[in-house]
Design a protein that fits this description.
Layout: E1 20-25, E2 31-35, E3 38-47, E4 50-56, H1 58-66, E5 74-80, E6 87-92, H2 121-145, H3 152-166
Antiparallel strand pairs: 1-3, 1-5, 2-3, 3-4, 5-6
């Protein structure tokens, strides 16, 4: 018989219809275990007042750790995609960056914008969802232009990551901001 609460598995959602789950961490750090597919991180959490165990993949673990969440912090978790295309979006709901955290490095801020007061984690999270939506629109156009062949979610995620890696803000693709269109 198991000595920990039931296991919670996050539902895979799409960028078009993301579903978040709010979790409250029970401890500062997870227990590291070896699972069927490699290293997993066992988190004790509360979801809607009920205790659960989450066996986090390295990707989910990194996303949680990036929030610098500690015991009693509530995080909003969204799982987008499945398998190798899974992406985790995790933000702290209190908008803080953690007790001993360095300021969040937003790769989308230009150097001259770095003196602007920091956005909350929640604002950054929803801005990133808008960026992913823009990547989705671009992927739809790309696949249509190339005969409609391919996995829309995978192409969207690739475009999103390519822009992020290049420091390009996909929000420039919307509205009247012509600076980002080249």
């Amino acid at each position: 018989m198991s000595n920990y609460p039931p296991i919670y598995k996050f539902e895979a959602t799409s960028a078009r219809d993301p579903k978040s789950v709010d979790i409250t961490l029970k401890y500062d750090t997870p227990k590291e275990t070896e699972g069927k597919y490699g290293t997993q991180y066992r988190y004790s959490v509360a979801i809607n007042g009920d205790d659960y165990t989450i066996f986090a993949t390295p990707g989910l673990h990194k996303a949680i750790q990036d929030t610098r969440g500690r015991a009693n912090d509530t995080l909003s978790v969204i799982r987008i995609g499945e398998g190798k295309d899974t992406r985790w979006d995790v933000v702290r709901l209190d908008g803080s960056q953690g007790a001993n955290a360095d300021p969040i490095d937003d790769p989308f801020l230009a150097p001259e914008e770095r003196n602007i007061p920091k956005k909350t984690s929640q604002t950054i999270f929803y801005d990133n969802l808008k960026r992913y939506e823009q990547a989705w629109i671009m992927a739809e156009r790309f696949l249509t232009k190339h005969g409609g062949q391919g996995d829309l979610n995978a192409v969207s995620f690739t475009f999103y990551k390519m822009a992020q890696d290049a420091g390009y803000d996909l929000m420039n693709e919307e509205g009247n901001n012509e600076a980002g269109k080249q």
